[in-house]
Amino acid sequence: MLRRTARLRKEYLFRKSLEEKERQLAERKQQVKETLETGKPLPTNLRAAAAAAAAARLAQVLDLDDPQTLAPKTHVDDEYAYAGVEDPSIALTTSRSPSSRLQQFVKELNLLLPNCRRINRGTIVLDELLQLCRSSGITDLLLVHEHRGQPTRLIVSHLPHGPTAHFTLSGVCLRHDLPERAPNMSQDKNPRRDCL
User: Fold this and answer.
1) Which of 30, 39, 95, 184 has a 20 to 30 Å separation from 22 between CA atoms?
2) CB 124 within 8 A of CB 91
3) Which of 141, 101, 99 shows the shortest CA–CA distance to 118?
4) Please, which pLDDT band fits residue 183 given cuts at 50, 70 and 90?
5) Is the predicted pLDDT of residue 32 greater than 70, yes or no?
6) Which stretches make up the Brix domain (predicted)?
7) Angle, to 10 degrees, between the axis of helix 52-64 and the axis of helix 2-38?
């Protein structure tokens, strides 16, 4: 597990260094663009860094840029890097010592989400839970909290480095609370996903 954590840290730092290089390149592109528009001579820092051929190449690349590619992208923006290659795996759990209503709500959420595993948390603390999820290859962790038996908060965290989103739940209505249920609706059957 230490090797995996070290590898993930190296990948993270490598992505950060690539972002920094892209940011510096974007700044140089912007300086070249401004000097070409104003007709001023090339700044000395660019003259020292690159020859006139490099500036010409940057000008050619600048012609190919559109508004979306002018701004450098970060690794945080690349949440679909593994889309189509690897399916996300989701872990769904509750706060410690959940009520029966919260457990029922989590069961229903588990039916809605594809590739979702429900984990009975027991007395596992959050740090241990995160280490367990990282070591088993889980990409997202969903935590559902309650207040007096009502589900009130949903925390969605993308592993291993985030981001984390907090949502407030209100007016939660479970399937067995609905006044008119279809006669063939069972508790363990997935709902039709084409309706969602």
Assistant:
1) 39
2) no
3) 141
4) low
5) yes
6) 88-196
7) 100
